[in-house]
From TrEMBL:
Keywords: Cell wall, Hydrolase, Protease, Secreted, Serine protease, Signal. Residues 20-370 form the Peptidase S8/S53 domain. Residues 432-544 form the C5a peptidase/Subtilisin-like protease SBT2-like Fn3-like domain. The active site is at residues 25, 78, 344. Pfam families: fn3_5 (PF06280), PA (PF02225), Peptidase_S8 (PF00082). InterPro entries: C5a/SBT2-like_Fn3 (IPR010435), PA_domain (IPR003137), Peptidase_S8/S53_dom (IPR000209), Peptidase_S8/S53_dom_sf (IPR036852), Peptidase_S8_Asp-AS (IPR023827), Peptidase_S8_His-AS (IPR022398), Peptidase_S8_Ser-AS (IPR023828), Peptidase_S8_subtilisin-like (IPR050131). This is Peptidase S8/S53 domain-containing protein. Residues 195-265 form the PA domain. One of its GO terms (molecular function) is serine-type endopeptidase activity. It comes from Rotaria sordida. The keyword Repeat does not apply.
Length: 666
């Protein structure tokens, strides 16, 4: 378990000012005593709105909004868990059902919360228009910070909610988004294909047995489906590994264990099928061996435009926080708290640190960001991002001496204590180098001395692991990049500068790609420029990242893959048709176009035209599209139905149109 609270020295920094954090999520169980126990202006959860109502789900997208953002019906209590990470106070709980096994504070326990409900009880869908409306409503309600732990990563950020977030941040509201939990799905990650371990009735005889299932982010079904199917097949228990808290079955004991424990059980049973395992229902603190390193589920950038995502990291693995009483009952926990993992947890953690920062500077209002403000002004979000990025803490890949790729950790682990006490700032605070064919010859960084003493700064370079996401002979990206100790060469001029208080100086950087990198595989190189203040030994960091090779050569559609699932056209016997082959179609058999994507594209779509380049009059010209979904997506099977009047004995062409990089059509 990772505690959500910072040490007391952080809390002591916080002034009396209270910042308001809007949580856009499943709603909040504000009746939880650790979250104040009430809703309204005098409560911890002081404002909010329900945009959708209880019955909103995938099959019913007709919202029924109301003024009450209470979530007392979702089995995950996701928004309540997020809210607790930001601002819970679970230090003096005496009410039955709400006593944590370890007292804790949220990151910013003095913050006020707003709850904006964009999911119904099912928690299975949230629409972009609702998310966009929630962002603007939170802005209108005077939120200082907005946090959204919704959805996964995408290689492009052009949706209406992303645009809304940009607009409100320009008006002085700070906003944090999760980047997704698809770290096992390779570069430019987006929701993956959907494994179904346990999503169908067991094929083995499980009568009287405890069934052990694997879990992966993006799975086709959840724990309730798996465990209930196991119960129906006669199982006496259900265990799921590689996941945190679960809903499980209402008829048989259910539980979750770590990936390591799950694999250990499998190894033991393989050697000794009659082995007996004993579990206890006691709770306690346990060390997390991976603490302080990127979680395996952390999604990996960069964006489709080779821009920075993620920008910074927060604590997101094994985080203990609040859940609703309803969720606690469904999860069979004795108290309304749970340990969960994900960027959904890291995002409110960072939001909480922003709340601490605002409280420290007296929480000037968002309106003071304007250029007309002279004193007690709120720094722009851009300046705060610069401050937090340059004072973050770069971390290593677990159990190695390699710095984790900037494409995975961004600027590093957020360090609000150093950000608040920073005596150095830099601009820009990150360098997106593009690919090596389009990389600038040099980059200029401005270093600011924020301290009250003259300081000498020493500038040096630390390379991060080279991330290679392809293998020779395959178009498809690897599920896990190959990391290696191959670093860029950086020329720094000058390597030492002296700055008086309040003054700034310039440094120039020139980058040379890693010597052993294979440009054909388009690996991501990255690292950090370290600027050390010799007065107090504080180190400011500038993360950089780029791609070796010509990014225009990145394959969007998979033609070669070891899985043999590639882009192409199948005949009625599910056999690929070659480029030179002419297939005779009949009235009963159609054809299938399979699209398998690798690197990201803003959009891929299929059209059918006649052999004479005329659009078929009685058929829809578009048969499907893929929007912003890079690699590891399942094959998209598009059945092209035949129309007897228009298609009999006609030849057809199928056009695949891809929106590629650098705003070109290919």
């Amino acid at each position: 378990m990772a505690p959500t609270a910072l040490s007391n020295r952080f809390i002591n920094i916080v002034a009396a000012a209270h910042s308001a954090v809007a949580v856009i999520d499943t709603g909040i169980d504000y009746l939880h005593p650790a979250l104040g126990g009430c809703f309204g202006p005098q409560c911890k959860v002081a404002f909010g709105y329900d945009f959708v109502g209880d019955d909103f789900n995938q099959s019913n997208i007709n919202p029924m909004p109301d003024e009450d953002p209470l979530d007392n019906c979702s089995t995950s209590a996701h928004g309540t868990h997020v809210a607790g990470i930001v601002a819970a106070n679970a230090t003096e709980m005496t009410q039955t059902g709400f006593i944590p096994f370890q007292s804790f504070l949220g990151v910013a326990p003095q913050a006020t919360l707003g709850g904006y409900r964009i999911f119904g009880c099912a928690g299975d869908t949230a629409t972009t228009d609702v998310m966009t409306a929630a962002i603007y409503r939170a802005f209108d309600d005077k939120a200082d910070i907005i946090t959204m732990s919704v959805g996964g990563a995408g290689a492009y950020t052009e949706s209406s909610d992303a645009i809304a977030a940009q607009r409100v941040s320009e008006k002085g509201v700070y906003i944090t988004f999760s980047f997704g939990n698809d770290g096992s799905q390779g570069l430019q990650t987006d929701p993956p294909d959907t494994p179904n371990d346990g999503c169908l009735s067991p094929t083995l005889n499980v009568t009287g047995a405890v069934v052990l299932y694997a879990f992966n982010n993006g799975d086709e079904c959840g724990s309730a489906v798996r465990c209930n199917l196991a119960a129906q097949a006669g199982a006496t228990g259900c265990l799921i590994y590689n996941v945190g808290a679960i809903a499980g079955s209402s008829t048989i004991p259910s539980g979750s264990i770590s990936m390591a424990d799950g694999l250990k059980i499998i190894a033991i049973v393989t050697n000794n099928p009659s082995a007996i395992f004993t579990f206890t229902n006691s709770q306690g603190l346990a060390p997390i061996s991976t603490g302080g390193t990127p979680s395996s589920f952390t999604s990996i950038g960069l964006t489709g435009d080779l821009l920075f995502k993620p920008q910074i990291s927060g604590i997101g693995g094994y985080v203990y926080s609040t859940i609703s009483s309803f969720a606690a009952e469904k999860q069979r926990t004795s108290n309304a708290y749970a340990t969960q993992s994900g960027t959904s947890m890291a995002t409110p953690y960072v939001a909480g640190t922003l709340a601490l920062y605002l409280a420290h500077i007296g929480n000037p209002g968002p309106e003071t960001v304007s250029n007309g403000c002279q004193t007690n002004c709120r720094p722009s979000f851009e300046k705060v991002v610069n401050l937090f990025q340059s004072n973050a803490m770069p971390v290593n890949i677990y159990s190695t001496s390699l710095l984790a790729s900037v494409a995975q950790q961004g600027a590093g682990l957020v360090n609000v204590f150093q950000a608040i006490q920073a005596t150095t700032s830099v601009s820009p605070s990150q360098l997106a180098l593009n690919d090596t064919l389009r990389q600038d010859t040099s980059y200029t960084i401005e270093v600011f001395n924020l301290g009250n003493k003259t300081a000498v700064y020493n500038i040096a370079h630390s390379g991060a692991a080279l991330a290679t996401g392809l293998q020779k002979g395959s178009d498809q990206l690897l599920g896990q990049p190959i990391y290696s100790a191959d670093y860029a060469i950086v020329d720094i001029q000058p390597t030492t500068i002296e700055l008086d208080p309040g003054k700034s100086g310039m440094i120039t950087l020139r980058f040379q790609a890693p010597c052993n990198a294979n440009a054909a595989l388009l690996p991501i190189f990255s690292g950090f420029i370290n600027i050390t203040n010799n007065v107090n030994d504080q180190v400011a960091h500038i993360p950089y990242a780029g791609v070796v090779g010509d990014y225009k050569n990145a394959r969007i559609l998979v033609r070669n893959s070891s899985s043999r699932i590639v882009t192409g056209i199948l005949n009625s016997n599910n056999i690929y048709i070659s480029n030179t082959q002419q297939e005779n179609l009949n009235l009963s058999n159609g054809t299938r176009v399979i699209l398998v994507t690798a690197w990201a594209s803003r959009i891929v779509f299929v059209e059918a035209v006649s052999g004479e380049n005329q659009v078929l009059p009685s058929l829809a010209t578009s048969y499907g599209y893929i929007y912003n979904q890079p690699r590891q997506t399942p094959a998209f099977y598009i059945n092209l139905a035949l129309d007897s009047e228009e298609t009999d004995n006609k030849s057809h062409q199928y056009h695949r149109v891809r929106k590629k990089f650098f705003d070109t059509i290919d």
